[in-house]
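Q: Hand in one record:
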Amino acid sequence: MSLLNYPCCFYQDETRIFYMYDLFGLNKDDIIIKVVDNVLTVADQREIHNSSKHISTSLSLPNNINIDDNKVTYTNGVLNISFLKTGEKTKFLYIE
């Protein structure tokens, strides 16, 4: 199996983190989106030219988001995924 990647851009505002993928030429039914162990994967479920080549990309999500509070849209070949931030979870460790 050959694996190709989709490019991803991301940004954040005060309350959400956003991921944008350029998936021009795909129908929304061709796209698989999943989160497993805080890893976001976007994949194309079609066979490409009758071969086993699949296009997908995965990235680790930050710990300070709520994966259940998500918004997903697909318009004009651009997939937008956003998650609600839950606040910073920084813990400082001190030397004894």
